[in-house]
């Protein structure tokens, strides 16, 4: 995608190997990002999800909401998720990221980290439904948080700060070779919303998403 997509050609690939990672800082300027943060906080159907680990259901340490086309259902942590219908605002955001990514997205996973005690465990977005080399567009609003990438074989980590209005694009073979996590931190006092736009290409009886996140 890097060379094929002229819009991203000016951006450095932050992944040293085995995939593509582009950070478009302040993709939305602060004043526009402020509005999105406030309205998404209030308008999305935030829920506490439970995941099944070692025979027990435990709440994930963040709030989540899943939106998309009706057929873009997604198996996540062993639970089939039917998407909620797109809101006007999410459709606008989707169009903006589609223009940059030159790809259609049919779903978005929204995460709300209320403060630094909320987090996401180490995982790769490598579910079958996403296809072999998914392009995922991730928008951040609110508190700055660290997204840490760890290579699966070589001992390399890559720390990426995601701030208000940033767009991060993960593409190529990244999900085969790198895992990522959003660690807890004492520094973060404010809320952060992250939206990951995805394209679900099929809905086979794929295995449950890794439960450790
Ligand atoms: O909050 C983030 O930046 C990461 C979200 C993420 O990795 C995911 O939704 O799969
Ligand atoms: Fe992810």
TrEMBL record:
<keyword id="KW-0479">Metal-binding</keyword>
<feature type="domain" description="Fe2OG dioxygenase">
    <location>
        <begin position="104"/>
        <end position="201"/>
    </location>
</feature>
<dbReference type="GO" id="GO:0016787">
    <property type="term" value="F:hydrolase activity"/>
</dbReference>
<dbReference type="InterPro" id="IPR027450">
    <property type="entry name" value="AlkB-like"/>
</dbReference>
<keyword id="KW-0560">Oxidoreductase</keyword>
<dbReference type="GO" id="GO:0051213">
    <property type="term" value="F:dioxygenase activity"/>
</dbReference>
<keyword id="KW-0223">Dioxygenase</keyword>
<dbReference type="Pfam" id="PF13532">
    <property type="entry name" value="2OG-FeII_Oxy_2"/>
</dbReference>
<dbReference type="GO" id="GO:0006307">
    <property type="term" value="P:DNA alkylation repair"/>
</dbReference>
<keyword id="KW-0460">Magnesium</keyword>
<dbReference type="GO" id="GO:0140097">
    <property type="term" value="F:catalytic activity, acting on DNA"/>
</dbReference>
<dbReference type="InterPro" id="IPR005123">
    <property type="entry name" value="Oxoglu/Fe-dep_dioxygenase_dom"/>
</dbReference>
<dbReference type="GO" id="GO:0046872">
    <property type="term" value="F:metal ion binding"/>
</dbReference>
<keyword id="KW-0234">DNA repair</keyword>
<protein>
    <submittedName>
        <fullName>2OG-Fe(II) oxygenase</fullName>
    </submittedName>
</protein>
<keyword id="KW-0227">DNA damage</keyword>
<keyword id="KW-0408">Iron</keyword>
<dbReference type="InterPro" id="IPR037151">
    <property type="entry name" value="AlkB-like_sf"/>
</dbReference>
<dbReference type="GO" id="GO:0016705">
    <property type="term" value="F:oxidoreductase activity, acting on paired donors, with incorporation or reduction of molecular oxygen"/>
</dbReference>
<dbReference type="GO" id="GO:0032451">
    <property type="term" value="F:demethylase activity"/>
</dbReference>
<dbReference type="InterPro" id="IPR032854">
    <property type="entry name" value="ALKBH3"/>
</dbReference>
């Amino acid at each position: 995608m890097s060379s094929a997509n002229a819009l991203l050609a000016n951006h450095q690939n932050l992944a040293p190997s085995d995939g593509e990672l582009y950070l478009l800082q302040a993709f939305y300027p602060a004043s526009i990002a402020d509005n999105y943060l406030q309205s998404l906080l209030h308008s999305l159907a935030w829920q506490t999800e439970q995941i099944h680990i070692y025979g027990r259901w435990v709440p994930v340490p963040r709030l989540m909401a899943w939106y998309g086309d009706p057929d873009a259902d997604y198996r996540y942590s062993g639970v089939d998720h039917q998407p909620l219908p797109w809101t006007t605002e999410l459709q606008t955001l989707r169009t903006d990221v589609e223009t940059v990514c030159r790809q259609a997205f049919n779903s978005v996973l929204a995460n709300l980290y209320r403060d630094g005690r909320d987090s996401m465990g180490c995982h790769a977005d490598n579910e079958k439904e996403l296809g072999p080399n998914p392009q995922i567009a991730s928008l951040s609003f609110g508190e700055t948080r660290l997204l840490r990438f760890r290579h699966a074989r070589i001992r390399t980590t890559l720390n990426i700060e995601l701030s208000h209005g940033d767009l991060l694009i993960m593409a190529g073979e990244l999900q085969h070779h790198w895992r990522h996590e959003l660690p807890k931190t004492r520094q973060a006092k404010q809320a952060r919303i992250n939206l990951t736009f995805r394209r679900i290409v099929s809905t086979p009886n794929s295995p449950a998403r890794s439960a450790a996140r």
